[in-house]
């Protein structure tokens, strides 16, 4: 999937992946896509909850070799 | 959509009990909540510029997981608190959990409002210059003005 910005939250625990996602989205334009990588398995449910509550669509969630990869579109 | 609000009363000043208010406040702010945290009694220690004296004690804390079972008589020996604090900080770091300093600055960046209890400052004769500048001083009525209108209100 194409994306405009990427950051790696590997090794970070709750709530840092979410806080850093929020920060990363803040200087992006509406419609741009953020790729986020995390190793915290709690991030899967947290990213969905973040999306539900903030309205930024979570385009996809995938797991690859112990890493979770998220694509989120800025609303 | 109206902005959701959350209020937290932070009354504890130990390392373990410092995490919940900062984690919940920073996360709620990231989710778009307007957040205020009222620091009172020992919670006020969490507003100090220097957080290195925020410690954890195994004493009277039987639920704290210890690497080896430790009798209370041993827990009360000098230096045990510093050792437990050092071990806990190492553990937090190893697991990628943010430090208190980091979580607190993330709260401030996200416009979480910190209110320090004026009564506690007077009671313990604290020096305001030892606290971070980004806090306001107020009392219970001031906090109630905000808390009465929140969606989530917690006492920690």
List the helices and strands and how they pair.
The complex is a heterodimer of chains A (75) and B (156).
Chain A: E1 5-9, H1 16-26, E2 33-38, H2 42-54, E3 58-64, E4 67-73
Parallel strand pairs in A: 1-2
Antiparallel strand pairs in A: 2-4, 3-4
Chain B: E1 5-10, H1 15-30, E2 34-39, H2 72-75, H3 80-94, H4 100-109, E3 113-117, H5 118-123, E4 135-138, H6 140-147, E5 152-155
Parallel strand pairs in B: 1-2, 1-5, 2-3, 3-4
Distance between the termini of chain B: 29 Å
Order the strands across the largest sheet of chain A as they lie in space.
Answer: 1-2-4-3
- Biggest interface: chains and residue counts? A-B, 16 and 13 residues
Beta-sheet strand percentage of chain A? 25-35%
What is the CATH-assigned architecture of the domain at 5-54 and 99-155 in chain B?
A: 3-Layer(aba) Sandwich
H and E order of chain A: EHEHEE
For the report, how would you describe the main beta sheet of chain A? Answer: 4 strands, mixed
Mean pLDDT of chain B: 95
How many beta-strand elements of chain B? 5
Oligomeric form: heterodimer
- Count of discrete alpha- or pi-helical segments spanning 4 or more residues of chain A: 2
User: Judging by the overall fold, what is the CATH architecture of chain A?
Assistant: 2-Layer Sandwich
CATH topology of chain A: Translation Initiation Factor IF3
Question: Mind telling me the CATH class of the domain at 5-54 and 99-155 in chain B?
Answer: Alpha Beta
Main sheet summary of chain B: 5 strands, parallel
